[in-house]
Amino acid sequence: MSRDADPYIFSSDTLPSDLRFLPPLANGLLGWRVYDNIMHMGGVYNGEAGRCHRADVPCPLAAKIESKDAAQHAYSLDTHTGIFTHTLTSAAVTATQTLYSHRYYSNLMVMEILLVRQMTATEPVTVNLVSAFTPESKDIAFESGPDYRGGRYIKGQTTSAEYPGGLCPTVHIIWIPIPETLTLPPEQSQSRWGFILIADNSFDSAKAKFDEALNLMATGNMRLSHEKAWKELWLQSKVEVTGSDSLCRALIGCLFYLLSAFPSIHDTSSSFGGVSPGGLSNGGDGQDYWGHVFWDQDIWMYPGIALFYPKLARAVLEYRVRTIDGAKDNAEKQGYKGLKFPWESAVSGREVCPEDIYGNQEIHINGDVTLAFQHYLYLTEDLSMFREGHGSDVIYGVADYWVSRATWKPEDQKYHLLGVMPPDEYYYNVDNSVYTNTVAKFSLQFAGELADLLQHTAPKEWKEVAEHIKIPFDQESEYHPEFDGYIKGHPVKQADTVMLGYPLGLQMSKQVRRNDLEAYEPVTDPQGPAMTWGMFAIGWLELGEAERAQLLLKKCFSNIQGPFQVWSESSDGSGAVNFLTGMGGFLQAVLFGYTGFRVQKGCLAFSAILPNDISELCVRGVNYLGSQMDWLLRKDEVCIILREQTRSHGSAKPYNLQVVLTASGTEIPLTPGQPVTFKREPGCVRKLKSTSSCWSL
C-alpha cells in the first residue's frame, strides 16, 4: 500500500480466484456476498432442530457488468461507506457499478450503474448485465404475485419450522427487474440507473418500504442516507495504528465486517437475530456453521463492539432474552433447573446443534452469555436492561442451572461439573473443565451482585456453589490443567485455559499466568481457529512482553484473505468464511491488549503497552458510563479526551469521571474537550472511575 493510499479502501484489479472471499455486504438484517445469487435474512431459518440453517433467499441483484469490447476492470470496497464498486473502462465507456446493503433502511439493498461516454460519437453505447438470479429457493416455496409499482414480487414460506409447532417464517421480496443490457443513447454523455430490492416478513411492510425506497431514489437521497448512516457509525468508533499499514488495514476490516453484522444504531424493531461465525452473508445448509449463534457472539465479537456502542451491545443481550423460553426447555430436557442456553442457537433458543454431544456437554455457553451481561452492566450501569429488559431472568436462570448441574463431592469438599466438553473440543466427557468451572463461579457471583443491586433475595446456594466449586490447579507445576486428568503437553485445539486471565479475569500470580501460556502455546494446533492467537497475545502483553505478543498476533495475518480483508477460520483458507469470530479475537488483542482495558465493577482499568513497530494507537469513541472518550497511546504517554459527559442512568447527576493514578493515588478529573495527558509507566494499572457509580453508593 502506498503512503498516500486510504487504508479504509480495499482495491484490486482482479477478483479473488476463490469466490468465497468476495466481500460480504450486510446491515444486521440482510447479508449477501457480492455477485452471489443467494442472500440471507436475519431470523429466517429452515429445517428442524439439527437440520436448521439459514434459509437461502434469491438475490435479484446478482448481476455483473460486461462489455463486448476490451476493457480494464477495477474493484474496490470502501469501508467508509460500505459500498462495493466495479469499474469497467473501455475505449467507448466507463461503467461503474455500485452495490450496498443500506445501513439505515435495513430491508433495502441497492445496485446503481453509471455509464459515462469516453469519446464523442454518434453511436449508442451498450453494456451487458449478466445475471445469475432465479426467483427460486430450495428452502422457501416462493410464488409470484402481481407487480407493485413497476417492481416484481414474490412471496414464500420456509418449508420446515425450527421445532414442532413452531412458525415457518414468510419472506416477501419486491425488486426492480434488471434488464440484460443498458444503453447510453447517442445524444447523452452519461446516464444513471438504480435497482433496489426490499425483503420483509410482511407484504404491507414490504410495500411501504418499497414506496420509501422509490422516494429516496427520486429525491437523490438513496446513497446519501446510506453514507450518512455509516459516517455516523464511524464517528463513534475508530481504531488506528501508526507504524504498520497491514495492521491498520486489518483492524479497519475487522471493525467494518463486525459492524456490518449488527443492526442500525437507530433500529427499534427488537428483531435482531444475533451474530453467527460467518455473518449474514453465510450459513446456508451445511456451510459456515449453518448460520447458528454460538459463544462466538458473546465472548469473541461482543466485547469489541460493546466498548463503543452500548445500543448494539444491548441488542445482543435482548437477543438472548428472547430465547429464554428455549433455554428453559433445554434445561428441562437435560433434567436440570433454570436456563441452559443452546450451544447453537437460531431464533427460539432451543438447541439446534446437529450433534448432540456439543449441545449436551459444552455448557460453558451459559457462563459466556452471562459474562456479556456482566460486561454490559459494568460498562453502562444500565439497570433498565436487567429490570424492564428482563436481563435479571437470564442471570438468575443461569445461576439456578449451575446449582442444579453441580455435584458435591465430600472427599474434597468441592462442587464438580462432570461430563463436560471444554472450549477445547478435542476432549469431551471430561470432569471439571477449568474454563467451564471458572465461568460458572463468576456467573454465580454476578447473580449475587445483581440480586443485591435489584434488592432480590438470592438463594444461599448461589454463594455456596460459587465459593466451593473446584478450580483445577497443579500445585507442583504451578499451572492450571485444562480439566481433571489432562496430561501436560497433550495437544489442544484452541485458546481455552489461557482465557482464565482474559477475558475471565481469574486472579493469579504473574508466574502462574506465564506458566499457563508456556504450557499451552506450543501444543495449540497451528491450524486451529483464527481467534486463538489473539488470546495468547493478550496474555503476553499483560506480562509486558510486547514483542512476543506481536509475533503471535502476526500469525493471524495468514487467515486474512486478500484483496478485501475477508477472514477464513483456518490459516489455509478452509473453514468458515468471513470468520467474524477470528476478527473479534484479533480486535480484542489490540483493544484490550495494547490498551490493557479491563471492564471491572466500578471502574475501567487500563495499562498501556505498545510493541516496537507501533508508535501510536488511536482509539476514538470509547463509551464508558455513557460518556464518549478518545484515547491516544504513544510509547511514553497516554492522552484521554472526554468528548461529552452524560448523566447517570435514572439520575439527574452526571457521571464525574476521573483517572486514578494507582501508584500515587492522584485523581485527575476529566473535563469535556480538555485533554488529560500523563506518562505511561510499564506494568502500572490505572483506573477510570466515577463517584456517581452505582457500585460506590
Describe the structure in your own words.
Pfam families: Glyco_hydro_65m (PF03632). Belongs to the glycosyl hydrolase 65 family. This protein has 697 residues and is of the alpha+beta class. Helix content is 28%, strand content 24%. It is built from 15 helices and 32 strands. The strands form 8 sheets. Strands 1-9-10-11-12-18-16-15-14 form a 9-stranded antiparallel beta sheet, with helices on one face. It has a 5-stranded antiparallel beta sheet with strand order 19-26-27-28-31. Helix 5 runs antiparallel to helix 8 (364-380).
Anisotropy-based shape: globular
| Spatial order of strands in the largest sheet | 1-9-10-11-12-18-16-15-14
Give the tally of β-strands.
Answer: 32
Helices and strands: which structural class?
Answer: alpha+beta
Gyration radius, rounded: 26 Å
Mean pLDDT across all residues, rounded? 95
Give the helix level as a range of percent.
Answer: 25-40%
Number of helices: 15
End-to-end separation: 52 Å
> How large is the share of residues in beta strands?
15-25%
Pick out the low-confidence regions.
none
For the report, how would you describe the main beta sheet? Answer: 9 strands, antiparallel
Gist?
The protein is an alpha+beta fold and 697 residues long.
Keywords:
single chain, 697 residues, alpha+beta, nine-stranded antiparallel sheet, 15 helices, protein-glucosylgalactosylhydroxylysine glucosidase activity, glycosidase, EC 3.2.1.107, Glyco_hydro_65_M
